[in-house]
Give the backbone structure.
Amino acid sequence: MNPKERMKQLVDILNEANYEYYILDNPKLSDFEYDRFMQELQELEEKNPDLVLPDTPTKRVGSSVVSEFKKVSHLYPMLSLGNVFNEDEIIAFDERIKKQGFNPTYVCELKIDGLGVDLIYENGVLVRGATRGDGVVGEDITSNVKTIKTIPLRLKEDVSIEVRGEIYIDKEDLIRINKERKMEGLELYQNCRNLAAGSARQLDSKITAKRNLKNFVYNLPNPVDHGIYCQSDVLNYFEKLGFMVNPKRRVCKNINEVIEFINEMTLKREELPYDIDGMVIKVDDVTMQDNLGYTARSPKWAVAYKFPAMEVTTRLKDIIFTVGRTGKITPNAILEPVKLAGSTIRRATLHNEDYVKQKDIRVGDIVAIRKAGDVIPEVVKVIKERREYPLDEFKMIDVCPFCGSKLIRKEEEANHYCPNPNCDARNIEKLIHFVSRKAMNIDGLGERIIEDFYNFGYLKKITDIYDLKYRQEELKSLEGFGSKSINNLLDAIEESKNNSLERLLFGLGIRHFGEKSAKIIAQKFSNMDSIVKATFEQLTQIVDVGDIMAKSIIEFFNDEENLKLIEELKKRDVNMEYHGKKTVIDEDFYNKKFVITGTISVMPRDQIKDKITELGGITTESVSKKTDVVIVGDQPGSKYDKAKELNIEIWNEDKLLEMFNKK
Ligand code: IVH
C-alpha cells in the first residue's frame, strides 16, 4: 500500500472510531489502537505534507493561531427566534397559526444554551464552520470547529450541505475549568454559555481543543433541496449523516402534547448534563413553514419557550426618572448591585407609575429582580415580609426632571410624557437614536460623547452633526479627543451621508416606526419627497403598514419643524434616495393584492413575494373579497377553494412565470 492509500485508510478508521466513541457512545477501537493509528497518520502527514487529506482527524488537537477571525457571509441568514414565557403565550402562538388555516403537527426540541454555529460540507467533507455574528455576516472559526469531536469531519454520505446547530459545554466541564482557573488566579466563567462561546472563539485553536466542546445540530435552511419535507425528517437525516442530534425531542400532534412535553422537561431540566434555557417549538411541515413565512428577524413557524427567568433579591436604593426621545418618562430602580445570570445588575426598569403603585414598590424595600434572556431586568415584586420599618409611598413626579415642563398623561395610557419638544433629555435621546447602528450608523458618536458635545453646545440638533466639521479645531483641543479620533469621527459622519434612504427614515425617530417598515416604505416610494407627500391611503395600502403607523408618518411630515429638518439635511448633501432595488410600476401588479397557496416549485416563495413587491404588488396571507389574484401551486390549500368561490383571478405557476418574464 502506498502512503497515499494508507493515509486515506487511517483517516477513515480514525474518523469512524471517533463517531463510534462520541456519537454512538459505543467504542470499538481500543484507546491503544487509536493512539497507534493516530501516530502513524501524523508521521505520514509530516513526511507527505502534500497528501494531507481535508478530513484528517489530526487537526482535532488544534492547528492554527490567528490574530483575528475572517468575516464570512451566510448563504441563508441565521435567524433568531421569538420568545414566549408561559402557557398562555404558547397557546397564543398556536392560535395565530390556526388562524391562518393550519392545524400543524409540531416538533419540540430542547433549547441548548450555547453558541449557534453554521457548518458547511462539500461532498461530505467539512469545509467551513462559522459563528452566527449578526445573522448575515459571521466569523470563520473552521479550525476551532474541527477540534470539536462531535462534529464530523466527513459525513456518511458525500453530500454538499449547510447545517446549523449549537456549540455547548457540559456543566461538569464548567466546574472543572473554573476550578483550574481559580488555582491559576484567572477570572472565572459565569455560566456554560459564556464558556462555550469564549472557547469557540479562541484565537489559538489548541486552547479550544482542550475545552471539550460539544455540538448538537437542529436546523437545515433548505430542506426541500435535500428532498426533505418536515423538521422531524431533517433531524433523522442529520443522524443518518453522522451528526449528534439531541435525542430529547418529540413530535407532537397538537399544542397540548407540546405543553405536556415542556412540563416533563421542566422537571428533568436540572438532571441534564448541559444547560438548556428553554424549549423550541417548530411547525413540522416545511410547506406549512413556508406559508407562515418570516418576520424581519425570526420565523413565524417557530418559537422559543423560555423557562421562568431566574430571580434574585436585593435592596432598592433609589428611584430615578429617565426621559426617552418621545418624551416618555420611565421610573428606574437603582439597586444594591447583585449578580444574576452572569451579569451584575445595578438598575432595573419599573415601567411606569401604575406598575410601581400596583406592586407598592418603595425606596428601601427588598425587591425581587428578574432577567429573562436579553431583556432589560425588571423588578417583579416586593418582599413585604422584609420591610423593616415604615417606608414612604412612591410618588410620581409631575414635572420633567430635566426641563421642568409639566408632565402629561394621555387618557388610557399608562405613561407620562414630557411635552417639551426642546427638552434636553429628549434631544440627546433623539441624537443617540439618529446615529445608532440600525439608523445612520455613525461610528465614534457614542452616548457619552453625544452628551458631552450636547452640554458643550456643539451638538443640539440633528443637523449639527453635519456641521461638526466646521468645529474641527475646537473639538481636537477637547480633553480626551486626539486629532486622529476626531478625523475618524468626521469621516464616519461624511460617510453616513451616502446611506440609503431607509436608514435616514428610521433615524428620524418617527413613532411606531421600525427599521423593517422603514425599508419597505423607502423601497416603495424610492425617495424622501414622495414619502413626505404620501397620503394615508397610499401608506396603508402597503402590507405591514397599519393605521397607527400611517397616521404617525403623516403627523410627522405635517410638522413644519420636521420638514425644515429634511430641507436642512438636503442642503448638507445627505442622501434622500433608496439604493436598493426600486419598485417598478407595472399595471398587472401595481396595487394589486396577491395570495400564494400550495407548493410552488419554480422559485422560492420569498423570491416570488419580493418580485411581486418590486413590481408594485402587495402580498397578503389570506384570501378575501379584496384579493385580486391567487397564485396556485401544487397541492393548494383551502385558499384555492375560497378563491374559486369568490371568483378571484387564478394564476398557476406557468402563468406567474409568463407575467414575470414579460417584464
Ligand atoms: S432553531 C430558524 N432550535 O437559540 C430556526 N435554535 O434565538 C432558528 N438554539 O440562534 C433556530 N437550541 O442558537 C433552534 N433546538 C434549537 C435550538 C436553537 C438552541 C439557539 C440558536 C438560535 C437561538 C434562537
